[in-house]
Design brief:
This protein is mainly β and 92 residues long. It is 7% helix and 35% strand. It has one helix spanning 47-52, and strands spanning 2-11, 20-27, 56-60, 80-88. A 4-stranded antiparallel beta sheet has the order 2-1-4-3. The longest helix has 6 residues, at 47-52. 11% of the residues are buried. The model has no long low-confidence stretch (mean pLDDT 88).
Amino acid sequence: MTRQKVLVLWLADSALDSGVVAWSQWDGTGERRHIAGDEEQAPYANGVMALRDGWRLFQVSPLAPHYPGAETQTSYLKYEFWFEKLVEVPEG
């Protein structure tokens, strides 16, 4: 039986090889239960490293320019990359 793991990396900019600034993950295999803030270090330094470890990139947030005057305001993390990994688990 195949189950899905999902990894979301928020990067410093739109390049897949830029540094991770935040992350979140979910494990559909039941192997591990992740909660917010349960890790001190990101699972990967950048998105390319996740690809090299077998994660499949399936969504990238669209780039939207800042409106004039908003360049230094903080809000949501906009460079969001979603990955998945399909894992075989025993039935039962």
